[in-house]
Amino acid sequence: MATAIAPANIAFIKYWGMRDTHATLPYNGSISMNLDACLTTTTVLFDPNLPDDEVVLAFYGQAPQTAQGRARERVVQHLDRIRALAGIPTRARVDSTNTFPADAGIASSAAGFAALTLAAVAAAGLHLDTYELSRLARRSGSGSASRSVPTGYVEWYNGDDVGSYAESIAAPDHWHLANIVAVVDTSVKKVGSAENHRLAVTSPYFQTRLDELPARLDAVREAIAQRDIARLGPLIEVDAISMHAVCMTQVPPSFYWNAATMAVMEAVRTWREQGVQAYYTMDAGANVHVICEGHQRDEVNHLLQALPIVQFTIANNVGPGARVLDSAALVTDTN
Ligand code: PMV
Prior knowledge:
The chain is an alpha+beta fold. It has helices at residues 69-86, 108-123, 130-138, 193-199, 206-225, 229-248, 259-273, 297-305, 328-334, and strands at 2-13, 18-20, 25-26, 30-46, 54-58, 65-66, 92-98, 153-156, 166-170, 177-183, 279-281, 288-293, 312-317, 323-327.
């Protein structure tokens, strides 16, 4: 048995479009920061007495529920990968809890599959390094889970099955950035990101986005290294708009933004004119992630909370990556 905790992450350069759905390989590299307040904690117990896997998910604000259908299937398929690596047939009980709303564009699947990967690997008695854990989390189908494994600021490379892993490009204490999630909608999204990753290529703007990305990735990497919010912020916004423009022009098109999303974007632009260095980005959901430096975090949080269309906020600093909290396998090793 083992328990692991993993953060959600917010991408500054988005992963959009999957070129290999079997191995979950992206068309482009991406860069993110881990969120220290949006966490999933997962316990995996391999039990020879279990006839089948049992998956119990406790979503934010809801009682624990036994997962059914596709949600259960994705967890079981990932356990199968780890069982194959460990050479064990044993079924497992999985218990998972979230500190934030799932399926609303706050990377709940990234945190969930990173935590599941670390807990199941430790519970199966396997010893894998961060690179291997990140590749394995990527293969879960939620590619961005690979970026929730390493610490702080993270880049996920566009490579083959071996070359496509994520690594830390700066530790959390390199630069105190904050991400305040302005929650405007907690309903489950209509089209999951897996489906849209397959459709991305149907947008006439997809190739243009891919052509732009090498230079934008370099610029984001440099802005992080130089702790330059005035350079990083506009790049984050451009990339979010580019990803959503592709999404809105896919066949069939998909819209994650709603009127509240647009209103928060407008408010952030107005505050910027008044000297608040805050920038927005959106994942596959309507909620707006507002990025600023740590010294403006409380001010930005209060401004967002005062907007009538914002239901609540979640204020995050840059956080560590996924880690095992408690593992019977690790205890056995040290004895
Ligand atoms: O990893 P997935 O399949 O949940 O897709 C993530 C897609 C975005 O959140 C929109 C972008 C990203 O890079 O996190």
